[in-house]
Amino acid sequence: ERSVRVGHSFPEDSLNGTVVATYQFNSWTLLPTQSAKAFLKSSLDLSTSPRVSQIPVPENKAPDGQIRISGLNVENYFKTYGSRGAKNEEEFVRQQKKIFETIRELDGAVFALQEMENKNTTLASFVQDLNAHIGSPGKYQFIPVDPSEVGIDAIQNAIIFQPSILKAIENPLYKTYHSPVKKSRVSIAQKFQLHDRPSSEFVIVANHLKSKGSKCQEDKDGTALNGEGNCGAARLSHAKQLMAWV
Questions:
Q1: Considering only CA atoms, which of 245, 242, 217 is closest in space to residue 231?
Q2: Measured between alpha carbons, how far is residue 240 from residues 15, 67, 169 in Å?
């Protein structure tokens, strides 16, 4: 409630508190002298970015060949507390509830997930806890990931699906990226089929290309200055590799 969202404005006459104005990175910044959370909540003009409370979501209609496919970044979902993910149990419970509620509301037949801890045990417990939260044991299953394929990175991609709607066909395939830099996570491709419809086969690919959070030494063409952010050349190269692979 009253969370800060993109597009919110702060009318001059609604600012409650004292701020320090500073100019950096070619823009003015207001630094509250009190708790930023309290300052923002007392100053927000919610009318500038209204929240849509109910967004219609089409139902899964497998007999008609209509299913819902979704992707979700689980934001460093780790069962262990440390440098990644939740720092303590309270944060983990809050993170888990948000993710599970999102999945429950979307009710996707299949989800491609990003930033899952690189352990099949974490993925298994994720699905078990998700089904318990939804109140439907066995509603979702996960595609086991081959550790020898995804490597030793801290996070991995993952795929979960509803076995009552879809059947997983064959084993997953993996795409590793090397050039110009090996920083995108390994893509995972899984073939599915609607039950009793052999001609309905399709493939889901879970991807997580290199982020803009850190620089790539290979980016020497100035793409970071064109609004693409760090590692734009790497993402473009990996996207082309992905298309050729698929």
A1: 217
A2: 48, 28, 26
CA-to-CA separations, 24 to 29, 88, 180, 205, in angstroms, rounded = 7, 34, 33, 41
pLDDT, tens digit, 9 for 90 and up, residues 166-186:
999 999 999 999 877 778 999
What's the rounded Cα separation, in Å, for the pair 96 and 132?
Answer: 12
Cα–Cα distance measured from residue 29 to residue 151, given in angstroms and rounded to the nearest whole number: 42
For residues 22-29, average pLDDT: 80
- Region class of 107: left (phi > 0), else alpha (psi between -120 and 50), else beta: left
pLDDT for 222 beyond 80 = no
- Joined tokens for residue 137: 């044991």
In the chain, the percentage of residues whose pLDDT exceeds 90 is 54
Q: Which domains does the chain have, with CATH numbers?
A: 12-48 (no CATH), 62-210+235-245 (3.60.10.10)
Tell whether the torsion through CA atoms of 97, 102, 108 and 110 is positive or negative: negative
**In the numeric block, which tokens belong to residue 194?**
């609607």
Name, in order, each residue with C-beta under 8 angstroms of 173's C-beta and a sequence gap of 6 or more: 188, 189, 190
pLDDT reading at 223 higher than 60:
no
